[in-house]
Amino acid sequence: FFQAEDGIRDYKVTGAQTCALPISTGLGVEVLPLDPARARQFGVSRAVVVTAVEPGGAADRSGLRRGDLVLQADGREVSGSGDLAQAVADGRAALLVRRRNEQRFVPVLLR
């Protein structure tokens, strides 16, 4: 697939918590909104960074990895875990993901 964005793989945030999507969504990721300075650095207006992927979960099966930037879900910008949860509410979503300087659509199908 592609490698994690430089400087994002080990993304650290002081005084913030990652947002785990509820197990009921079945996506199996933890995400954190990208702060404005980091977003500008990577040339995006909004995104979430994947901070953890549940082994065997839908995100893992789809190829999402820690450090990925999720830019869009079903054509809409993503700025938090709620955007992802809403996108997968019907059991599937197309995520626009950036790793390094490459962007790809990643289809996610929940079981």
Question: What features would you describe in this structure?
Answer:
With about 110 residues, the chain is of the alpha+beta class. The protein is about 15% helix and about 30% strand. It has 3 helices and 7 strands. It has helices at about 35-40, 60, 80-85; strands at about 20, 30-35, 50-55, 70-75, 75, 90-100, 100-110. Strands 1, 2, 3, 4, 5, 6 and 7 form a 7-stranded antiparallel sheet that branches. Strand 4 (about 70-75) and strand 5 form a beta hairpin. It is globular. The model is unreliable at about 1-20 and about 20-25 (pLDDT under 50).
Estimated radius of gyration: 12 Å
Number of H- or I-type helical stretches: 3
Task: Determine the N-to-C terminus distance.
Answer: 22 Å
Unreliable sequence segments: 1-18, 20-24
Helix content: 10-25%
Taking all residues together, what is the mean pLDDT?
A: 80
Shape: globular
Strand content: 25-35%
Largest sheet: 7 strands, antiparallel
> What sequence of helices (H) and strands (E) makes up the elements?
EEHEHEEHEE
Structural class: alpha+beta
Counted beta strands? 7
